[in-house]
Amino acid sequence: MKVEIYPSRLHGQLLAPGSKSIAQRLVACALLAKGQTVLSHYPESDDCQSALQMAVSLGALVEKKGTTIKITGGYPNNFASGMRNPKNVLDSGESGLGARMFSSIAALGDHEITLTGKGTLMQRPFQTLEMALQQLGATCKTSNGLLPLTIQGPLQGGHAEVDGSVSSQFLTGLLLSLPKASQSSEINVLNAKSLPYIDMTLAVAHLFGVQIQHQAYAHFQITNKQAYQPIQTIVPGDWSGAAFLMVAAAVASEQGVVVGHLDQVIPQADSAILEALQKAGVKVIQKKNGYEIHQSDIQAFEFDAEHCPDLFPPLAALASFANGVSSIHGIQRLVNKESNRAKSLQEEFGKAGIRIVLRDNEMKIYPGGIRQATINSHNDHRIAMALSILGLAGDKMVIRGAECINKSYPAFFHDLIAIGANVKIS
Fold first, then answer.
1. N or C, which end of the chain has less CB nearby within 10 Å?
2. Does 310 participate in catalysis according to the annotation?
3. How is the beta sheet containing 257-260 ordered, strand by strand?
């Protein structure tokens, strides 16, 4: 799909899409809960649909009606309630969280399962998972550290050490699966990253009645044989997707844009966009269940995105309109994404006239006159959305491979059109 973005004046209001990070965790917990869980405002993104498909592959019954999803779970041993027997192959699509989370959950069963995926996920590392599951009594074998991998449980529990420097997603899978293991567990985490995502996992588990204790994210204690209880809830709005809308408004909306369906009841790392906007001098007005953002004179800023790396693309776009050089810390977290995100931003922003320098663990963005460009999404949803912002407030951007937004925010371009953006989709 090719998308053309032209300079525009934005105005109006939108609802943030449902959080894909929370939605996938809710589906995982619903799979483990005996009975029926009901999720409203469920996102249409590819990753969220992959989560549902993996739950079905592991035996869950899933009913869809609009954006409401009903999931009957009870994995791994509740098939008498109507759950189907698990399949031998688990396809995670391109979802890194889904692959890393559902693989640990699949290990609760005693049948062999092969987990696979597609796209760049097949080149993302899984050694951390392999080592942790083996320490906890399950069999796990990767393909030289990559997908596909084979798993066979049952996961026993016990003691394991996990390297948290690559991704918190491995830890998320263990934290959600081990409460159902036969033995209590202790997990030592070395160099934990993305701490708000760990908080998110703990908060979602708590919704289902599961308790997990930890000391400073370095030592986790998980009591065995806990029971997940089914719930009814609304999937909260996604701060990750909302960040792009907020930045777009900050550079292209004199009258203001209201982004609704946003709260901080369940922790989301990317709610830190509010702090970044404040540092950049953006006018933000809190509304009931949302925020109104106005075009502002963007000040050069410095921001640490170590624990919220998905904010790099929208913040790079924001910095492109600043009155000086901005710096964002934490680029080491950008290597194992849908693309090498630091390199992708540097290359594609460079085509549009924005110089990005990468040094050590820091990204420096040098604002300048944005020029018309035809750019490559690198099949990375967040790169495509960030480059759209350059078109809205700079010059025409032609984005190739723009269908990659389906991974997290399929309605992104249509939502921009709804608030006045001049967008052509072909």
1. C
2. yes
3. 12-15, 257-260, 290-294, 283-287
